[in-house]
């Protein structure tokens, strides 16, 4: 029988790599906690209609990339292709708007898109999603941008760049859309096939086409920034001023339009020069129309999503994988000794130590080798003689220093063992 393979575009994150993921998660959690964001955990699948309405039918995500299926009850279900829509649905379903205040929420977990897998692009990938719901204030825009840069900086990432743009409000965009279509229509036949299609469906998306001829044509296109109303211009100016006050460098990129229909005003992306083709680590922006579009009240919002696979790639280029930390490794041999290790390990764990038992039953020599490789600081040795006496040998692996003591004495000196271990860790 042939082996069952993992699905294309999925990856197992193995234990050695998990330390990088835990580092990303704990760093993000710290930064978010200090800014008063609260974690929320919505489900991973939702009614297909949520994404169709919330992301937009004309986007690649909805049009080409969703994992949708009919469940046994005949409903159309979709594995979430991103987190924002589900989070907003949860915000509405649970009436989190009822207090009338601002909600700062975050979530991390997998998302699913049927895409061609390549480095930094998978079919199951992970996002860290951060949102502020309930504020129109440009300080909210600046706050989420600052949080994204803080997380990336706290992880030690360099050579990042931040692009920002304003896509204005609905009316600004409508005016701009008309100007853009008039400009592009004479070039219609020279545009790439996708862009020709978008000319009627979603013309703004043509601005971020990757096709070189289309890019050349787009260079001469009118700028969205020239079509902003006074209010939109004001908002954008304040965002820029405050970013400068915070010493956050940015570039204005008038072609940054994001793939999703619900964005208004600020749009931003953080790229890394060290990622090749999949350079965008973080994408975000304001979406003042989404809550209402999904059946909720009029609640403005802004947020971002960081792609954690891309971040993990950058961190692996940067970090050596930290050695596992283990306090004690227990080796044993003999009918009386082996059962005694279970209770010894358990008692030590209850005192707060990390303990691994060698379960192999192999010769002491082999067990000692594994003890060395385990990264443990101390090796506890139990033969039948010790088991009968109720004693144990403790060997500190870095110095080779060894002593025999009653097992009860070992447990009684937990405090001094802790001090010893802390000293050894520091050296
Ligand atoms: P791209 O242009 O790279 O396809 P996108 O505009 O589709 O990105 P968003 O919908 O803004 O991406 O998602 C936010 C972030 O999630 C991206 O910046 C990226 O880091 C990450 N991301 C998106 N799709 C994938 C994927 N298939 N695999 C891994 N990460 C992804
Ligand atoms: Mg994409």
Describe this protein's structure.
The chain has 427 residues and is an alpha+beta fold. Helices cover 41% and strands 22% of the residues. A hairpin with a 7-residue loop joins strand 9 (264-272) and strand 10. Helix 1 (15-34) packs antiparallel against helix 5 (138-154). The longest helix is centred in the N-terminal third of the chain and has 20 residues, at 15-34. It is elongated. 36% of the residues are buried. Adenosine-5'-triphosphate is lined by residues 82, 113, 115, 120-122, 125, 127, 259, 278, 280-283, 305, 307, 309-310. Adenosine-5'-triphosphate binds at residues 82, 113, 115, 120-122, 125, 127, 259, 278, 280-283, 305, 307, 309-310.
Topology:
Layout: H1 15-34, E1 38-39, E2 45-47, H2 48-55, H3 60-65, E3 67-70, E4 76-79, H4 84-93, E5 103-112, E6 124-133, H5 138-154, E7 160-166, H6 170-184, H7 193-201, H8 212-219, H9 230-245, E8 251-252, E9 264-272, E10 280-286, H10 290-293, E11 301-307, H11 308-318, E12 326-333, H12 337-350, E13 355-357, H13 364-373, E14 376-383, H14 384-389, E15 391-396, E16 402-406, H15 407-412, H16 414-426
Parallel strand pairs: 1-5, 7-8, 12-13, 12-14
Antiparallel strand pairs: 2-4, 3-4, 5-6, 6-11, 7-9, 9-10, 10-11, 14-15, 15-16
Helix pairs in contact: 1-5, 5-9
The structure holds adenosine-5'-triphosphate and magnesium ion (MG).
Adenosine-5'-triphosphate (ATP) binds at residues 82, 113, 115, 120-122, 125, 127, 259, 278, 280-283, 305, 307, 309-310.
GO molecular function: ATP binding; histidine-tRNA ligase activity
Subcellular location: Cytoplasm
Domain Aminoacyl-transfer RNA synthetases class-II family profile: 1-324
